[in-house]
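A quick aside before the break. I want you to see a complete sequence-to-structure record at least once, exactly as it would be stored in a machine-readable document. Don't worry about memorizing anything.
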Amino acid sequence: MHFGVHAGLQNTTTAELRSLWRRIEDHGFEWISVWDHFYAADASVRGDGPLRSGSHCLEALTTHTALALSTSTVRCGSLVYCAGYRHPAVYANAMATLDQLSGGRAVLGLGAGWHQGEYDAYGIPFPPVAERMRIFDEAVQCVRLLLDEEVADFRGEHFTLTDARCDPKPVQARFPIWVGGGGEKVTLRVAAQHADGWNVAFVSPETLRHKVAVLDRHCEAVGRDGGAIERSVNVALAWNEDDLVTQFGDAAPYIASNALKGSTQQVIDQVGAYRDAGAEWVILALRAPFDTDGLDRFAEEILPAFT
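That is the input. The structure line, written in tokens, reads:
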């Protein structure tokens, strides 16, 4: 088992995040990731007027770079960048440079995007889900080509690459691209075809087991070894209900049933259930105000049970 932390960028400061990142790394976690939002993930936004609430959120690419420069051992990931916010060439070039800065520890997570309020606030087109999935599919392919090939050519519905180059290349011989989401028809197919890792958030062990089986079937269909794809799950850490509400607010009821909470043994059992369902990584989803005491407790009481 591998463990990481996904630290949300809303309602926090760069100083607070740097302190948190150092704490996570000192505890022996192997992964830290950022998210890609312009506003708080559960913000209430009007498309035809000003933002009503939840606008305090740090920008992802900049914070991802700070993460790489503030740490020395953890993998520096993203869960996940939105394919609709930036051209895939932006992602490819940014990740190549980020891998150089981190000494080969960067990971790019990509997803189709869902937060319509953010699209509407900035006037970014928010197409129907089927089209967003096609954009996502093409974006993953373009990034892969740009990072792997000396010269990339691609012609799709949404993106075109013509004698395109991404230099210098990443430090890692094969730069890891992770796909985020649980959609069984498209997302898991794209993961099977192109991804090095896959992440799904806030699902039960039973649901995870089902999604893993679907991913394996897609891998078999495209002739790929499913073992080549790292499987991860994001779960909230909240030792009690009050902690969950403090961190996740109105979203707490939707994730409460699958949050890690209770006694030490109960949390160990929950983590074990995710492992048995196929998770190689359990990534703790934290939001400000960050419960550092709860994080310390997890490191002291849970990590040793899986090492």
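Two observations worth writing down. Confidence is low (pLDDT under 50) at residues 43-52. The two ends are 8 Å apart (CA to CA). We'll return to this after the break.
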